[in-house]
Amino acid sequence: MTAPPSPETVGFSWRTSGESHGPAMLGFLEGLPAGLPIDPAAVEAGLARRWQGPGRGPRSKFEQDALEWISGLKKGVTLGTPMSILVRNSDTRIDTLPDLKAPRPGHADLPGVIRHQVRDVRAVLERASARETVARTALGEVARQLLAVFGIQVQSQVLSIKGFKSESSWIDIIKEAHKAGESLGGTFQVTADGLPPGLGGYAQATDRLDARLLGVLASIPAIKGVEIGLGFTASETVGSDFHDEVCVDSEAYHSLGRVTNRAGGIEGGLTNGQQIRLRAAMKPIPTLRKGVPSVDLETGELARSTYERSDVCAVFAAAVVGEALVCLELASALRARLGGTTLAEMKERFELLRPKALVTDWPRTLDSPGFS
């Protein structure tokens, strides 16, 4: 028997299934309150954003990402039961596509076949493919609609491609890489506004919202670095220059604000009422036309890695996926904090989080008269 989950993390649970060239990708989401109206068109629009931006490959020209709502809704409103969404694949040739003879360094190809001790690379890559993120993005777009009820907004932005921060140069850089048979990486950020203080937890390591957000971004294929707030540059300063000064601010929760936001909106595993700021670094994806040195698994001889239809640059898509995953984690943290079985209950409890007294009026300790 497994240990019960921490009370701080009883929010959402989700899983996905499906292969890149199988019939469909599926997403399962549990923990939504009853009574939340869902706009399917907005979810589909979120999925469509994955295909936008320069550098996408041939699949972007034919994949429809057609959605089917399998469970959890009645007349477009959540039932409070597990939701399942099916996303049809346009290319379903999993049984007839050729295998990859030479594994691609940087992909799951070689570690996967070593794990299985069989040369069937496709048995690994079909699930390891970034195509899986379409299901998570669909779930994230549902979570976004719950966050919107409480005025919480999540956005993403590409910051650089191959180290270049000027948007005017990105298309040319990507075109050059395409001609050369190369692939490119870059960086993006995800921000969230409107969150009340106190979401997340500190009682257990798995409760900490910063760890959960950093982890969910790191789960996107090809992401090799994630930071929150000033991130790694925080190690280059002294404490008095880094930590965000507390000030009196009539616009902030309980009139306690901050002068800066170097912490990125989370302290001690909890939201502090400021904007959450996350950044992620994406490596060049491991599938490129020119290939890189590898070994032919049939002959055991040196060879170039096998090319599979792919993107040149997927940073723009990764930013959209990251945005959706942050929506999932934040909605889960909000759900855990508010509880209740219906959206109406969540809204009522959310109002209790709004400032109604100054901190100087609060009880001094947990055992003070009138606290409980």
What this model shows, in words?
The chain has 372 residues and is of the alpha+beta class. It has a single domain (7-360), classed as Chorismate synthase AroC (Chorismate synthase, AroC fold, 4-Layer Sandwich), CATH 3.60.150. Helices cover 28% and strands 21% of the residues. It is built from nine helices and 17 strands. The protein has helices at 40-48, 109-116, 122-128, 133-149, 167-180, 209-218, 239-242, 315-338, 343-353; strands spanning 13-18, 24-30, 34-37, 67-71, 73-74, 77-79, 83-88, 153-161, 186-193, 223-228, 246-248, 256-258, 266-267, 270-271, 276-282, 293-295, 302-304. The strands form six sheets. It has a four-stranded antiparallel sheet, covered by helices on one side. A hairpin with a 5-residue loop joins strand 1 and strand 2. The longest helix has 24 residues, at 315-338. The model has no long low-confidence stretch (mean pLDDT 93).
